[in-house]
Protein backbone atom coordinates (compact mmCIF):
# COMPACT_ATOMS: atom_id res chain seq x y z
CA UNK A 1 0.00 0.00 0.00
CA UNK A 2 2.82 2.39 0.83
CA UNK A 3 4.38 1.85 -2.59
CA UNK A 4 1.06 2.61 -4.29
CA UNK A 5 0.73 5.82 -2.28
CA UNK A 6 4.29 6.90 -3.11
CA UNK A 7 3.65 6.36 -6.81
CA UNK A 8 0.37 8.30 -6.70
CA UNK A 9 1.95 11.31 -4.98
CA UNK A 10 4.45 11.72 -7.81
CA UNK A 11 1.72 13.11 -10.06
CA UNK A 12 -0.37 14.94 -7.46
CA UNK A 13 -0.82 18.65 -8.28
CA UNK A 14 -0.94 19.82 -4.64
CA UNK A 15 1.25 17.46 -2.62
CA UNK A 16 4.72 16.05 -3.13
CA UNK A 17 6.42 13.04 -1.64
CA UNK A 18 8.52 13.84 1.42
CA UNK A 19 10.53 11.45 3.60
CA UNK A 20 9.66 7.77 3.21
CA UNK A 21 9.93 6.22 6.66
CA UNK A 22 10.58 2.52 7.04
CA UNK A 23 11.39 -0.03 9.69
CA UNK A 24 14.76 -0.25 11.43
CA UNK A 25 15.71 -2.94 8.90
CA UNK A 26 15.30 -0.60 5.95
CA UNK A 27 16.47 2.72 7.40
CA UNK A 28 19.24 4.22 5.29
CA UNK A 29 18.77 1.81 2.41
CA UNK A 30 17.95 3.01 -1.07
CA UNK A 31 14.20 2.98 -1.45
CA UNK A 32 14.65 1.25 -4.79
CA UNK A 33 16.39 -1.69 -3.10
CA UNK A 34 13.59 -2.03 -0.54
CA UNK A 35 10.88 -1.66 -3.19
CA UNK A 36 12.36 -4.25 -5.55
CA UNK A 37 13.15 -6.70 -2.74
CA UNK A 38 9.53 -6.60 -1.57
CA UNK A 39 8.20 -7.09 -5.11
CA UNK A 40 10.59 -10.02 -5.67
CA UNK A 41 9.44 -11.64 -2.43
CA UNK A 42 5.81 -11.32 -3.51
CA UNK A 43 6.53 -12.87 -6.91
CA UNK A 44 8.51 -15.71 -5.34
CA UNK A 45 5.78 -16.38 -2.80
CA UNK A 46 2.72 -16.14 -5.04
CA UNK A 47 4.19 -16.86 -8.46
CA UNK A 48 4.71 -14.50 -11.37
CA UNK A 49 1.42 -15.47 -13.00
CA UNK A 50 -0.47 -14.15 -10.00
CA UNK A 51 1.77 -11.29 -8.91
CA UNK A 52 3.18 -8.80 -11.40
CA UNK A 53 5.99 -6.70 -9.96
CA UNK A 54 5.38 -2.94 -9.88
CA UNK A 55 8.38 -1.18 -11.48
CA UNK A 56 10.28 1.34 -9.37
CA UNK A 57 9.55 4.94 -10.44
CA UNK A 58 12.54 6.64 -12.00
CA UNK A 59 11.59 9.87 -10.23
CA UNK A 60 12.51 8.24 -6.90
CA UNK A 61 15.97 6.99 -7.89
CA UNK A 62 18.51 7.85 -5.21
CA UNK A 63 15.92 8.31 -2.45
CA UNK A 64 16.88 6.65 0.81
CA UNK A 65 14.52 5.34 3.48
CA UNK A 66 14.35 7.75 6.39
CA UNK A 67 14.07 7.13 10.10
CA UNK A 68 11.20 8.43 12.21
CA UNK A 69 13.63 10.86 13.83
CA UNK A 70 14.58 12.29 10.43
CA UNK A 71 10.91 12.80 9.59
CA UNK A 72 10.30 14.61 12.88
CA UNK A 73 13.29 16.87 12.22
CA UNK A 74 12.02 17.78 8.73
CA UNK A 75 9.52 20.47 7.78
CA UNK A 76 6.93 17.87 6.77
CA UNK A 77 3.45 18.86 8.00
CA UNK A 78 1.36 15.97 6.66
CA UNK A 79 1.97 12.23 6.85
CA UNK A 80 0.16 9.29 5.27
CA UNK A 81 0.37 6.26 7.51
CA UNK A 82 0.05 2.63 6.40
CA UNK A 83 1.66 1.10 9.48
CA UNK A 84 0.64 -2.22 11.01
CA UNK A 85 -1.46 -1.86 14.18
CA UNK A 86 1.30 -3.21 16.42
CA UNK A 87 3.45 -0.17 15.57
CA UNK A 88 0.57 2.27 15.45
CA UNK A 89 2.12 4.22 18.31
CA UNK A 90 4.20 5.89 15.59
CA UNK A 91 1.07 7.85 14.69
CA UNK A 92 0.83 9.07 18.31
CA UNK A 93 4.44 10.26 18.15
CA UNK A 94 3.78 12.12 14.90
CA UNK A 95 0.63 13.85 16.13
CA UNK A 96 2.35 14.76 19.41
CA UNK A 97 4.96 16.59 17.31
CA UNK A 98 2.31 18.55 15.43
CA UNK A 99 2.17 16.43 12.26
CA UNK A 100 -1.29 15.82 10.81
CA UNK A 101 -1.63 12.11 10.07
CA UNK A 102 -3.96 10.66 7.43
CA UNK A 103 -4.04 6.98 8.24
CA UNK A 104 -5.36 3.74 6.81
CA UNK A 105 -3.87 1.71 9.66
CA UNK A 106 -6.27 -0.27 11.88
CA UNK A 107 -4.64 1.45 14.88
CA UNK A 108 -7.20 3.71 16.63
CA UNK A 109 -9.40 3.43 13.58
CA UNK A 110 -12.54 4.24 15.55
CA UNK A 111 -11.24 7.77 16.09
CA UNK A 112 -12.26 10.39 13.55
CA UNK A 113 -13.23 7.79 10.94
CA UNK A 114 -14.26 9.19 7.58
CA UNK A 115 -15.06 8.49 3.95
CA UNK A 116 -15.62 11.95 2.53
CA UNK A 117 -18.55 11.07 0.27
CA UNK A 118 -20.25 9.12 3.07
CA UNK A 119 -19.82 11.42 6.09
CA UNK A 120 -18.46 14.70 4.64
CA UNK A 121 -19.29 16.75 7.73
CA UNK A 122 -16.78 14.76 9.76
CA UNK A 123 -13.82 16.35 8.01
CA UNK A 124 -15.22 19.85 8.47
CA UNK A 125 -15.91 19.22 12.15
CA UNK A 126 -12.43 17.84 12.83
CA UNK A 127 -10.11 20.24 11.03
CA UNK A 128 -8.43 21.13 14.32
CA UNK A 129 -7.55 17.49 14.99
CA UNK A 130 -4.31 15.80 13.93
CA UNK A 131 -5.41 12.21 13.28
CA UNK A 132 -7.70 11.39 10.36
CA UNK A 133 -8.70 7.78 9.82
CA UNK A 134 -9.80 5.92 6.69
CA UNK A 135 -11.45 2.52 7.18
CA UNK A 136 -10.61 -0.91 5.78
CA UNK A 137 -10.54 -0.84 1.97
CA UNK A 138 -13.67 -3.01 1.71
CA UNK A 139 -15.43 -0.66 4.12
CA UNK A 140 -14.56 2.33 1.93
CA UNK A 141 -15.92 0.82 -1.28
CA UNK A 142 -19.00 -0.82 0.21
CA UNK A 143 -20.08 2.24 2.22
CA UNK A 144 -20.06 4.36 -0.94
CA UNK A 145 -22.57 2.02 -2.57
CA UNK A 146 -24.51 1.48 0.67
CA UNK A 147 -24.81 5.21 1.33
CA UNK A 148 -26.20 5.74 -2.18
CA UNK A 149 -28.88 3.10 -1.56
CA UNK A 150 -29.53 4.25 2.01
CA UNK A 151 -30.27 7.74 0.70
CA UNK A 152 -32.66 6.30 -1.88
CA UNK A 153 -34.40 3.47 -0.01
CA UNK A 154 -33.15 3.28 3.58
CA UNK A 155 -31.21 0.24 4.80
CA UNK A 156 -32.88 -2.17 7.21
CA UNK A 157 -30.44 -5.10 7.08
CA UNK A 158 -27.30 -5.92 5.10
CA UNK A 159 -25.13 -8.97 4.47
CA UNK A 160 -21.69 -8.65 2.88
CA UNK A 161 -19.45 -11.44 1.60
CA UNK A 162 -15.99 -10.32 0.48
CA UNK A 163 -13.41 -11.81 -1.89
CA UNK A 164 -10.36 -9.69 -1.14
CA UNK A 165 -7.16 -9.45 -3.15
CA UNK A 166 -3.70 -10.18 -1.79
CA UNK A 167 -2.44 -6.60 -2.14
CA UNK A 168 -4.59 -5.48 0.76
CA UNK A 169 -2.84 -7.69 3.31
CA UNK A 170 0.77 -6.59 2.97
CA UNK A 171 3.99 -8.15 1.76
CA UNK A 172 3.87 -11.91 1.13
CA UNK A 173 1.80 -12.55 4.25
CA UNK A 174 0.28 -15.89 3.24
CA UNK A 175 1.76 -19.32 2.56
CA UNK A 176 1.11 -19.74 -1.17
CA UNK A 177 -0.94 -22.94 -0.76
CA UNK A 178 -3.62 -20.93 1.08
CA UNK A 179 -4.32 -18.54 -1.79
CA UNK A 180 -2.93 -19.92 -5.05
CA UNK A 181 -5.95 -21.34 -6.86
CA UNK A 182 -7.72 -21.23 -3.53
CA UNK A 183 -10.08 -19.27 -1.30
CA UNK A 184 -8.99 -18.55 2.27
CA UNK A 185 -11.76 -17.72 4.80
CA UNK A 186 -10.25 -15.37 7.39
CA UNK A 187 -12.78 -15.85 10.21
CA UNK A 188 -11.14 -17.23 13.37
CA UNK A 189 -7.66 -16.59 11.96
CA UNK A 190 -5.33 -13.85 13.19
CA UNK A 191 -7.09 -11.39 10.86
CA UNK A 192 -10.02 -9.62 12.56
CA UNK A 193 -11.14 -8.37 9.15
CA UNK A 194 -14.80 -9.22 9.59
CA UNK A 195 -14.94 -7.28 12.86
CA UNK A 196 -13.15 -4.30 11.30
CA UNK A 197 -15.56 -4.17 8.36
CA UNK A 198 -18.70 -4.57 10.45
CA UNK A 199 -17.72 -1.92 13.00
CA UNK A 200 -16.59 0.56 10.36
CA UNK A 201 -19.67 0.24 8.17
CA UNK A 202 -21.90 0.72 11.20
CA UNK A 203 -19.91 3.82 12.17
CA UNK A 204 -20.34 5.33 8.71
CA UNK A 205 -23.84 4.19 7.70
CA UNK A 206 -26.78 3.98 10.10
CA UNK A 207 -27.08 0.21 10.60
CA UNK A 208 -27.78 -1.50 13.93
CA UNK A 209 -25.23 -4.12 15.14
CA UNK A 210 -27.77 -6.94 14.86
CA UNK A 211 -28.66 -5.94 11.30
CA UNK A 212 -25.30 -6.50 9.58
CA UNK A 213 -23.43 -9.71 8.70
CA UNK A 214 -19.91 -9.82 7.23
CA UNK A 215 -17.94 -12.81 5.90
CA UNK A 216 -14.44 -12.16 4.57
CA UNK A 217 -12.15 -14.21 2.33
CA UNK A 218 -8.77 -13.80 0.63
CA UNK A 219 -8.47 -14.97 -2.96
CA UNK A 220 -5.69 -15.34 -5.50
CA UNK A 221 -6.16 -11.93 -7.13
CA UNK A 222 -3.38 -9.34 -7.32
CA UNK A 223 -5.31 -6.08 -6.88
CA UNK A 224 -9.03 -5.38 -6.59
CA UNK A 225 -11.48 -6.38 -3.88
CA UNK A 226 -14.91 -7.85 -4.70
CA UNK A 227 -17.95 -7.81 -2.40
CA UNK A 228 -21.34 -9.47 -2.76
CA UNK A 229 -23.91 -7.32 -0.94
CA UNK A 230 -27.50 -8.20 -0.02
CA UNK A 231 -29.89 -5.88 1.75
CA UNK A 232 -33.38 -5.37 3.04
CA UNK A 233 -34.70 -1.83 2.66
CA UNK A 234 -36.99 0.40 4.69
CA UNK A 235 -38.97 1.82 1.76
CA UNK A 236 -39.69 -1.06 -0.66
CA UNK A 237 -42.40 1.01 -2.35
CA UNK A 238 -39.65 3.19 -3.84
CA UNK A 239 -38.02 0.19 -5.52
CA UNK A 240 -39.20 0.31 -9.13
CA UNK A 241 -37.08 -2.28 -10.92
CA UNK A 242 -33.34 -2.64 -11.21
CA UNK A 243 -33.06 0.72 -12.95
CA UNK A 244 -34.08 2.48 -9.74
CA UNK A 245 -31.03 0.90 -8.07
CA UNK A 246 -28.72 1.92 -10.88
CA UNK A 247 -30.25 5.42 -10.78
CA UNK A 248 -29.43 5.64 -7.07
CA UNK A 249 -25.81 4.83 -7.85
CA UNK A 250 -25.70 7.28 -10.75
CA UNK A 251 -27.25 10.13 -8.76
CA UNK A 252 -24.95 9.76 -5.77
CA UNK A 253 -22.47 12.64 -5.97
CA UNK A 254 -22.42 14.40 -2.59
CA UNK A 255 -19.19 16.27 -3.33
CA UNK A 256 -20.12 17.45 -6.82
CA UNK A 257 -19.80 21.07 -5.68
CA UNK A 258 -16.06 20.44 -5.18
CA UNK A 259 -15.44 19.34 -8.77
CA UNK A 260 -12.23 20.97 -9.96
CA UNK A 261 -11.21 21.81 -6.39
CA UNK A 262 -10.20 18.31 -5.28
CA UNK A 263 -7.95 17.00 -8.10
CA UNK A 264 -8.60 13.30 -7.49
CA UNK A 265 -12.37 13.62 -6.97
CA UNK A 266 -14.27 11.39 -9.41
CA UNK A 267 -17.34 12.82 -11.09
CA UNK A 268 -19.24 9.79 -9.78
CA UNK A 269 -17.92 7.88 -6.77
CA UNK A 270 -20.08 4.88 -7.69
CA UNK A 271 -19.98 3.84 -11.35
CA UNK A 272 -22.92 1.61 -12.25
CA UNK A 273 -22.19 -1.20 -14.71
CA UNK A 274 -25.20 -2.77 -16.38
CA UNK A 275 -23.24 -5.30 -18.44
CA UNK A 276 -23.84 -8.91 -17.41
CA UNK A 277 -20.83 -10.44 -15.67
CA UNK A 278 -19.62 -7.21 -14.10
CA UNK A 279 -18.03 -5.78 -12.05
CA UNK A 280 -14.76 -7.75 -12.06
CA UNK A 281 -11.67 -6.93 -9.95
CA UNK A 282 -9.03 -7.06 -12.68
CA UNK A 283 -11.21 -5.17 -15.15
CA UNK A 284 -12.76 -2.45 -13.02
CA UNK A 285 -10.52 -1.68 -10.04
CA UNK A 286 -8.96 1.43 -11.60
CA UNK A 287 -12.03 3.51 -12.48
CA UNK A 288 -11.16 7.21 -12.15
CA UNK A 289 -7.64 6.16 -11.19
CA UNK A 290 -8.95 3.88 -8.48
CA UNK A 291 -10.94 6.66 -6.78
CA UNK A 292 -14.37 5.28 -7.74
CA UNK A 293 -16.02 1.92 -7.11
CA UNK A 294 -17.84 -0.18 -9.68
CA UNK A 295 -21.28 -1.52 -8.80
CA UNK A 296 -23.43 -3.88 -10.83
CA UNK A 297 -24.88 -7.39 -10.99
CA UNK A 298 -28.10 -6.02 -9.49
CA UNK A 299 -30.82 -8.51 -8.64
CA UNK A 300 -34.10 -7.83 -6.83
CA UNK A 301 -36.24 -9.92 -4.48
CA UNK A 302 -33.81 -12.81 -3.99
CA UNK A 303 -35.19 -14.87 -1.11
CA UNK A 304 -35.48 -12.54 1.91
CA UNK A 305 -33.38 -9.81 0.29
CA UNK A 306 -34.83 -6.79 -1.51
CA UNK A 307 -31.63 -5.79 -3.33
CA UNK A 308 -28.50 -7.78 -4.22
CA UNK A 309 -25.51 -6.28 -6.00
CA UNK A 310 -21.76 -6.64 -6.43
CA UNK A 311 -19.11 -3.98 -5.91
CA UNK A 312 -15.40 -3.73 -6.82
| Main sheet characteristics | 6 strands, mixed
Task: Kindly name the structural category.
Answer: alpha/beta
Pattern of helices and strands: HHHEHEHEHEHEHEEEHEHEE
CATH superfamily of the largest domain: Dihydrodipicolinate Reductase, domain 2
* Strand element count: 11
Which bin fits the share of residues in helices?
A: 25-40%
Individual helix count: 10
Rounded to an integer in angstroms, the radius of gyration calculated over CA atoms is 20 Å
CATH topology of the largest domain: Dihydrodipicolinate Reductase, domain 2
Mean pLDDT over all positions: 93
The largest sheet has its strands arranged as 6-4-8-11-10-9
What is the terminal-to-terminal distance?
Answer: 17 Å
Indicate the proportion of strand residues: 15-25%
Q: Domain count, please report it.
A: 2
Level-1 CATH class name of the largest domain: Alpha Beta
What is the CATH-assigned architecture of the largest domain? Answer: 2-Layer Sandwich
Instruction: List low-confidence stretches.
Output: none
Global outline: globular
Describe this entry's structure for a reader.
The protein is of the alpha/beta class. Helix content is 29%, strand content 19%. The chain folds into two domains: 2-133, NAD(P)-binding Rossmann-like Domain (Rossmann fold), CATH 3.40.50; 137-311, Dihydrodipicolinate Reductase, domain 2 (2-Layer Sandwich), CATH 3.30.360. The strands form three sheets. The protein has a six-stranded mixed sheet with strand order 6-4-8-11-10-9. Strands 1-2-3 form a three-stranded parallel sheet, with helices on one face. Helix 6 packs parallel to helix 8 and helix 6 packs across helix 9 (242-251). It is globular and about 60 Å long.
